[in-house]
Design goal:
The protein contains 14 helices and 8 strands. By secondary structure, it is mostly helical. It has 3 domains: 50 residues; 84 residues, DNA polymerase, domain 1, CATH 1.10.150; 172 residues, Intergrase catalytic core (hpI Integrase, Chain A, Orthogonal Bundle), CATH 1.10.443. The chain is extended and about 90 Å long.
């Protein structure tokens, strides 16, 4: 049990003495008796529950903890995710918390950091930085360095999702024609992106061995991303659902065959002028921006091709299950919630079917109504 004693020789403060689970004598001073009593009660309860944390372990600096304990947990992250997290750590988190001890980082400190960061950065940036900070502190809790995660109750700014952009078939053709003027080797990329829906990293990782002209299919199983400090990194799609086979419209297959004739390659479908792996950032800057402007579609992005594909599938009558399969989503539930506004069930089609039910109703039964048999009461 802890003991509480007034210490005139220590500035008239209140001293709590207790023994930790290792039977080591511990002492802590408080200015107020009520704080000493609260500490004694909670510490005793923690010892009984087995959740006691040695205060000395929290003296480790945040930066050292990241180096010695958190970074080893990042080994299973994708290369792009790790590079992003390291960038956030270096830019937004370590400058604020690097020299602080883990135990000194409190809720109020974390909330103040988020509030200040929100005055300089977009909400999405602030939220991502806070998520990474929360992961570090959660790891510190698991490592028994601190008793609780100070990021748990921190309020974050609201991230407002931008409106998706969907092209009509005529606009897709206009964009493809514009790409022919600006960068003809990427014309087929527009057709495949807007009707097949692969992400840009999946498009740039496609090989001719993934294309089956007889069945009119393209198999998506890989992606390539550019990672700072590591260059172009290729790997499998993020999830099992992401590995999928798409059946292409004949026009899109014809565009791919024309691309093969104009820009022959035995490996990658899309290559740079020197036959190397395409860097998405280079295409975005050198060809994509010009084609989008020429087509009058300012603001249209690589990822908007994927949104366009989904909208065209739904317009062609695809179900939510079919869309989920083609888009590589793990569940139709996500597809339905993400693109609910595109499905006809959420508009006039449902109202028309309800009207049909109303018109088909009659005032008299369609068949004789039989009385429900009564069960005799037990004698």
């Amino acid at each position: 049990m802890a003991t509480i004693k007034r210490r005139p020789d220590r500035g008239d403060r209140w001293e709590v003495r207790y023994r930790d689970p290792g039977n080591r004598q511990r002492a802590k001073l408080f200015a107020r008796k009520v704080d000493a009593e609260r500490f004694a009660a909670t510490t005793g309860a923690d010892i009984v529950r087995g959740s006691y944390v040695d205060p000395s372990l929290g003296r480790l600096t945040f930066a050292r903890f990241v180096d010695e304990h958190y970074r080893p947990t990042m080994v299973n992250l994708e290369a792009t995710t790790r590079a992003r997290d390291e960038s956030y750590m270096r830019t937004h988190i370590l400058p604020m918390f690097g020299d602080r001890s883990l135990a000194s980082i409190e809720y109020s400190t974390c909330q103040a950091w988020v509030n200040e960061l929100a005055t300089r950065k977009a909400p999405a940036t602030v939220v991502k930085a806070a998520q990474i900070m929360g992961k570090v502190m959660k790891t510190a809790v698991r490592a028994r360095r601190i008793p609780h995660n100070p990021m748990t109750k921190v309020s974050l700014p609201t991230v407002t999702e931008s409106e998706d952009v969907y092209l009509t078939p005529a606009q897709v053709e206009s964009l493809a024609d514009a790409m022919t003027e600006v960068g003809p080797r990427y014309r087929a990329l527009v057709w495949l992106g807007c009707y097949g829906g692969p992400r840009i990293g999946e498009l740039l990782a496609l090989r001719w061995s993934d294309v089956d002209p007889m069945r009119r299919t393209v198999t998506v199983s890989r992606k390539v991303v550019e990672v700072t400090g590591a260059g172009m990194v290729e790997g499998s799609t993020k999830t099992k659902a992401g590995r999928r086979t798409l059946t292409l419209p004949r026009r899109v297959l014809a565009e791919l065959e024309a691309h093969r004739s104009a820009f022959p390659s035995t490996g990658l479908v899309f290559t740079s002028p020197d036959g190397a792996q395409v860097r998405a950032n280079n295409v975005r800057r050198r060809q994509w921006a010009g084609a989008v402007a020429l087509a009058g579609l300012d603001g249209f992005t690589f990822h908007d091709m994927r949104h366009t594909a989904v909208s065209l599938w739904v317009a062609a009558g695809a179900s939510d299950l079919e869309v989920a399969k083609w888009a590589g989503h793990r569940s139709a539930t996500f597809t339905k919630s993400r693109y609910a506004h595109l499905f006809p069930e959420h508009g006039e089609a449902l109202a028309e079917r309800l009207d049909a039910f109303i018109k088909a109703s009659t005032r008299t039964p369609a068949a004789d109504v039989l009385p429900f048999p009564r069960v005799p009461a037990p004698g």
